[in-house]
Amino acid sequence: MSAGKFDLDGKYESDAGNVYRCRPQPETKALALDSVTNAYPSGAVTAGLGSVTLTKSKRSLGVIPRTVTVRLTANGTGEQGDYEGEGTSHVVVVFNPTAYAGYAIGDAGTYLGIACVLDFKSPEVLR
User: Fold this and answer.
1) What confidence tier does 7 reach under pLDDT thresholds 50, 70, 90?
2) What is the span of the domain harbouring residue 106?
């Protein structure tokens, strides 16, 4: 479920400091936990690198992005049906390693403007 077209100007910074192009759904940036937002890294895309696929399985090759799993603690407006229901979990790519480091299990925040709590962190994997 997406809130709109893919963002063609997305950026993802790897743990090694390389900045890749990516194409996230727009709601991915709508995550804020404990006042830390899920913003793109500020650096320019590293020359000579391809893009990162944001929806890889953990067994894929290449850079597998870091993610967090958040659980909604309130109901949304109902525009997306069960997508916004209380108790619904969402796996969200975190673009910036600094933001990821700032998140802790149990942090409260918002996703899609709906109250949520951080349940799980999954680190970046390089295969």
Assistant:
1) confident
2) 10-126
pTM (predicted TM-score): 0.88
Output phi, psi for 102, to 5 deg. -80, -10
Q: What are the pLDDT digits (tens) for 31-68?
A: 999 989 999 999 899 988 888 887 767 677 788 999 99
- Asked if residue 4 is part of any domain, the answer here is no
List C-alpha distances in Å: 127 to 61, 65, 90.
5, 11, 24
3-state helix, strand, coil in the chain (%, to 5): 10, 35, 55
**Domains held by the chain: number:** 1
Instruction: Evaluate whether residue 2 is within a structural domain.
Output: no
